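Please review this one.

:::
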Amino acid sequence: MLSFARLALAIRGPQWVRNLTFLTVVLALGQSVSAQVGEVAPPKPRFPFPEKGIAAKYPGDQGIAKDPQVIFAENFEIEAIEDLKTRWETVRDSDIMLLDSQLPPNSSGEKSLLVSQTQEKGTGADLYRRLDAGYDRVFARMYVRFARDCEPIHHFGTCLGGNNPSTAWPSVRAGEPTRGDKSFWVGIEPFGKSWRWDYYTYWHAMRGSPPRGQTWGNSFIQNPNLVIPKEEWICVEWMIQMNEIGKKNGEMALWIDGKLVSHLGLGFPKGKWVFDKFMPGEGGEGVRWNPEKGDREYLGNPPEGSPFEGFEFRTTEDLKTNFVWLYVYITQGTKGHVNRVWFDDVVVAKDYIGPLVRSGD
């Protein structure tokens, strides 16, 4: 399906044509695009997002699990933690999970999930499940809350990804690229002591970093203002659009409390790479780790940055987004201290979900 057209115009002729600043071109799609002479109109996402999400039709998320666009929903309205095992294929360290009465605004439930990590009892806990046979486009929305005294989190799931073949447990490996026919995964994490949101993305074409080209999760936002408030419920939603085979037209997007804070795809946004970090909106000299040379390689960039190259998450149609993973992983916790994180109102769907709404909104 043709969703975007680029038209290169070579202008020659009378003086009045050469002096023309803007041209309006009617494309075959029936759309009009204004473009400055010598420029190409900026690329657009393959699929637009709706103004309102699925949640707008279901106040408090009541009944949302039955929507035909919803793949999975979890509101933790269960009798006991043991009941999680009927809905999640992997439940790790359930002894540090509790059902709690803290609830997100506009929630219609009575319970949330509280994970209480202590150094004495390990690094945290996991919930993981497969998403049927997998999908080419997946949205996941969940509410999370961090205690005021929660220590920096090493890794955190809100995580979507895919394994080929699918697995009933987390099957990810840190520090090395995935295989394009085997796996990829995208986490949304609070980054260390800065407590800001960013992606933590693994795929086969990911960037490495010195001194040996290690490939830790790549990040793409770098916004110091995207700070995570403590003691507040936060609505986190992200999207993965798989690429067509042989193309780099995969996409990622992130919403915080219903606001789109990041969207990356083939040709957008402009920025530069600094090893394993893409810096949107920044230009000038970038740098990457060249695995063939075993050394860094500097990249010339225009002052306004270069268009993002897009994502090739997979090299085979068999690899799709087929798992959702919630977890808390803290390796540097203080002995005797309890780190508390809440989860609630998890929805995985084929279209934009949006925040909880109340009746009458």
